[in-house]
Amino acid sequence: MIVCGDDGLAHRLAAELRGVYGEQVTLVVPPSGRRVPQPVVGRARAASAALFDRVSAAVNRAGAGGGAEPAAAEQMVEAAEVTEAVLTEAGAERAAALALVYDDDETNIRAALTARRLNPRLRLVLRLYNRRLGQHIEELLDQTAALACGAGPGAGFDASTTVLSDADTAAPALAATALAGTSKVVQTEGLVLRAVERQPPRPGEVADPGLCTLALLSATSNDPAGADGSEGSGEQGPRLLPDEAAVAAATGRGTVVLEQVSYSGPSLATGRGGVPPFASLFSRRLRWSLAGLVGCVLALAVALTLVTGEHPLYATYVTLLDLFGINDPAFHESTGEQVLQLLSGLVGLLLLPVLLAAVLEALGTFRSASALRKPPRGLGGHVVLLGLGKIGTRVLTRLRELHIPVVCVESDPEARGMATARRLRVPVVLGDVTQEGVLEAAKIHRAHALLALTSADTTNLEASLYARSLRPDLRVVLRLYDDDFATAVYRTLRAAHPFALTRSRSVSHLAAPAFAGAMMGRQILGAIPVERRVLLFAEVEVAGHPQLEGRTVGEAFRAGAWRVLALNTAPSGGRRGDGENGEEGGAPASGLVWDLPATYVLGAGDRVVLAATRRGLAELLGRRRRERAGA
Q: Region 28-48: what's the mean pLDDT?
């Protein structure tokens, strides 16, 4: 496996491939003077892997276990650019997979084209922010590989290209983390998996297990802060994919359950073609003024009907004539008609400035449609988002898809996400978040949560501490690079504010499992954070996996490793239509079958969606383990 990158994601991905999948990794990084500091988790795993290498070498020299698999090694190549010579030195012609995770899209595309020419059968994983360009590049590289190897359209061809975005992978988890009591959503191509955190049931209550229990949270019976921590008062950390006995025996612990599954697409409450919605053209005060005038006209028409006995439509017509001052004076009419005519004229005088204000306000709204909005005066219960870079832009889009009110804070008026904020008509405060008065302008004192997603750890920390000084109970989510630093900050904030909710998240930590799975030839549908751990969702073909094939759903479940959630009955999955599982007529022609009975037997033609831990997925899908099993 070859990993090329210039930031923390490359180191985390290499550590994931080595520590979890046991793969041999060559890491291509910039020269030491231009290199980003390696994250602590990567250094820790590298040290443990080096120790494992030394122990394995000693065991092999001693002659013990002659058929044992050699330990995975790691090589490092320093290069300013990924050229053909650099890829050849890294062994691209012999490699199984290559990951290009540079922060620049153009660099990754150029290197992918070179690598595909060197080795048409190489599995490529690219990190691209531009999703539309990524689709075209994926199709181009796959077509190039098929033609170079002489594979026909229907031939089984192992080489593949996968385009991923760390921003897209981490955005759902960051958005859901900011919303207390909101589901964690994993969404890919319209498939929505919703995992919900539930607090421990009170004495006498019966907890709803949902479709299944995915995790037991840290013990929280007497520690309200423990619900968000990795160090609970009971067992250390959460327990992923517990069995029924563990769920029944757990007391005082919250759960993460799979509650609802549906197909959905993005829906943004914006006008077509960048035109603002009709309701946003006029302020609430102006709309109430117009409604009051309409009510006055109706009241005057009813009164004229009662006084004159005329038809209601005729009375309304006469009232409108009086209102616009184009009717004859009621000199010789009754006193009631004269009074109503005077009142109609007065309402007409009030109507003129209201109509003028409506015209001016509508023109001003259209004129400022492309300008940044300021936070409304009475805004409350919103999410304050710091930073509109790659990650912040994706999180902003996700929050608006969930119809969550957002106020953004950005210091750079030319930031990547400013155009998205204008298009979604999201209020933006321009200024340095570390300066006094900026968070106040974002209405932080009435906000529901703070999402600190800038690229600087110290900026995120300073903004979070200042926000906590204003609102001690504010829900805070920090994006921090270093795991040790994030853990220390998390523990300190939780100890200082035990009744507030605090989260620390690393984008590369959330994205690395998806990139590693793609390098192993598997598509990771998504990942959800469970406290300081990650639970993965993947779609797997049953054939070739003895842990699944020929077993029932109950037998295939392995506590703490993986759980079968659903059966994919799409035609491409080759679903059996017989009745060997006691079903009449087989499964539907398409879609997913959830809540499978424990007695259902998984056949070689089935495809299943499963939840797994990182090590469980590596054990199930690991390339070296399958090779040993085949031998």
A: 59
